[in-house]
Amino acid sequence: MRYTWFNLKLLILISIVTLLTIGCGAKNITTSQSSPTPLPSPSPSIDMPSTGPDPSLNTIPTDKPSNNSIPSTTSPSITPKVPNPSATPPAKPTTTPNSIPSPFPSTSPIPPTNLRALNFLPGGIGWTADVQEKGTQIWRTTDNGAHWESSFISDAFVTSLSFADPSQGYAVANRDCSTIKGQVMCQQFEILHTADGGKSWTVQFTNTQAPTDPIDFNANKDTITFLNTKVGYAIANHNLYATIDGSRWKKVQFGNNPSFIPDKLNFINTDTGWVLGKQGSRCKATGPIEVNCQVAIEFTTDGGKSWSHQFNEAAPTDALLNNIGISFISKNEGWVLIQNLDRMESMLYRTTDGGTTWTHINTMRGARPTTAGLQFLTSKKGSIPLSIGAGPIEGGIKLTSDGGVNWTQITPEQSPSFEAIDFVSELDGWAIGTTYTSDGSHKVILHSIDGGLTWKIMFT
Fold first, then answer.
1. Rounded to an integer, what distance in angstroms lies between the CA atom of residue 309 and that of residue 318?
2. Are 435 and 414 in contact (CB under 8 A)?
3. What pLDDT shows up at residue 286?
4. Is 404 helix (H, G, I), strand (E, B) or coil?
5. N or C: which end of the chain has fewer CB within 10 A?
6. Across residues 51-76, what is the average pLDDT?
7. Residue 51 has pLDDT above 50, yes or no
C-alpha cells in the first residue's frame, strides 16, 4: 500500500511538469503570429470570365444623345434589371459605318476652344474649325453630331469653310502669324482644298502681304462659298477671289468702283450674287465705317465679270457703322443687316426687286448682345445669332416668321451666346455657341431640329 501511494505521487508530479511544458509551447506559437504576413491577392487567372452581361446592371447607355434632350453633365443612374434567361446577350459594338479612317485618329468629342468656322450639308454631315496655338483642328461629323473625327492642319489658322459635297471642300486660312501689341497679325493667307472630306488638305492659292501691311487675324472677315464642285467665291484679306474650275483662283475687280472693299457675300447660283461692303475716300479695310465712307452693295449676274452698284448708307457724322450680313433667297428677295455701333442698334433692310430698291423694316438692339450674322431660308423665316462677348447678358438667337418685321429672342440656358449659325433647312440648324463655367468660357457646337426654338449641345 505504501508503495502504491508513492507511485501515485510520482505520477502527479510527472503530469504537472508535462502541463507546464505544453503551456510554454503554446505561448511561443501565439507570439510568432502577432504580425502575420499579408496574404497575396488571388490570381486573376482563377476568376472565370463572364459569358454574358451582368444581370445586376442595366444596359450601358451609348454616348449618342437623344434627339430632344440636352446631354446631362452628371452620371446617369443605373437601375437594377432582372435578366431574361431566354434573352440573347447583346452583340459587341461595331465600328460606325460612316467613320472616317486615319488620319482622323481621334473619335472623342473633345470640346473645341476657339471655333472659327462652321459648315453643314443636308443629312447630318458637317465640319467645324478649331483654331489652336500650332494650327487648326478640323472636326467632321457624319451622324448629326453624335460622333466627331478630326484631322490637323499645321501652322494654318482657318477662318472659313465651305463644302460642295461630302468630299470636296475649301477653306480660307492665315499663316506666318505673330502677336504684335496684343494683336494677332499674319503675313499670308491661303485657300485650301480637300478631296477626301477633310482628311488631307492642299494649298491652291497663296498671297503674301508686305511686312508693313499684315493681316489682322481677329478683325478680318474672310468667307468662302461654293455653288458646286467647280464654282466658288471667297473674300480674303478684303479682296474678292473666284474660281470656275475648283483649282485656279483669280482676283475679282469691281469695274467702275475700284474703291469698293468687300465684307460679306451671298450667291444664289453660279452667276448671280451680291457683295456687301463699303466705299469712299476715307474707307479703311479694317474697322468700322466712318465719316466719308458708306455702306455699299455690288451685284453681278455673270459670275463677277461685270457689276452694278446698289444701296448706299452713309455713316452719320456722330456714329460708326458695321456690315453684319446679307442674305438672298431668290433673284428678287433679300435682306441686309447693318449695325450702328454708337447707338447700339442694327437696322434691317429688305428688297423684293433684286436690290434695286431697299426698305427699312426693323431696328433692333445691335450691341450687348451683338448681332453676329444673318440668314433667311424663306420669305418668312430668318435668324440672327446674338453674341454677348464679355457678358453678363442674354444672347442666343433671334427668329422671325414674318419676313423680319418682328423677332423673337431665344436664349438657351446651356449656351447664352451664339457666334455663328448655319441652317440647312427650315428646321435643321447648327450654331457655334459659348458656354460659361467656373473655369472660364468654352466654345461648343449646338443643333436644333425645330427651327431654332430649342437647342442641344453636341460637344459637351
1. 26
2. yes
3. 86
4. coil
5. N
6. 34
7. no
* CATH code of the domain occupying 105-252: 2.120.10.30
| CA–CA distance, 236 with 422 (Å, rounded to integer) | 20
Q: Is the pLDDT of residue 335 over 50?
A: yes
Percentage of the chain modeled with pLDDT above 70: 75
Q: In angstroms, rounded to a whole number, what is the distance separating the alpha carbons of residues 295 and 337?
A: 11
In which element (H, E) is residue 12 found? helix 2-32
pLDDT at position 16, please? 53
| 3-state secondary structure (DSSP) of residue 446 | strand
Three cell numbers, residue 357? 430698291
Taking a C-beta distance cutoff of 8 angstroms, is the pair 448, 456 a contact?
yes
Q: What is the DSSP string of 235-268?
A: EETTEEEEESSSS--EEPP-TT-TT-EEEEEEES
The pLDDT assigned to 347 comes to 97
Q: Please give the angle made by the CA atoms of 350, 332 and 422, to the nearest 5 degrees.
A: 70
**pTM summary value:** 0.76
Q: Where are the domains of the chain?
A: 105-252
The 8-class DSSP code of residue 289 comes to: B
Q: Is 421:445 a contact under the CB 8 Å cutoff? A: no
**CA–CA gap between residue 373 and residue 386 (Å, rounded):** 8
Give ∠ CA 55-61-64 in degrees, rounded to 5: 160
142: left (phi over 0), alpha (psi -120 to 50) or beta: alpha
Residue written as cell 461630302?
166
- What nine digits make up the cell of 400? 422671325
Low-confidence winner among 16-25, 118-127, 223-232, 390-399 (lowest mean pLDDT): 16-25
Residue type, 427: L
The β-bridge relationship of strands 183-194 and 202-208 is antiparallel
